[in-house]
Sequence to fold (135 residues):
Amino acid sequence: MSEIKGQCHCGQTEWTVKLEDKAHVLCHCNTCKSLSGGASTLNTIIPESDFKLTKGELKHYTYKGDSGKDVNCYYCPNCTSHVYHHQTVMGPKFVVRTILLDGAKEWKPAAEVWGKAKMSWEPEVATTFEMMPPE
Fold:
């Protein structure tokens, strides 16, 4: 397991995560597209205990996910980089934005989720699930 440092766009907020695999899960859901202004976001899912905020603080807001349960979005209060989301339906796990982690530009995609919302022009770059993979 590797401990990897992350930081927001402005550098005001920093954190570390523990990861088994250095890989991205691309999310094509409409919420991620709205938040990023792009076709997908780059993420991984980790246990809450594998995330540690080391500098600054985060703000958050809550919306209802497709499950009808709360999704808490945590972001830098200065530059608004989204650091992680906690989907309460998933229990004590965080969806961490991997592109904000050191070395992430070199990582490969491991999977694509919410493929049913994928833009028609996007090529498949990893195993694609219509929604989420089976548990």
Notes: The radius of gyration is 14 Å. The chain has a mean pLDDT of 94.
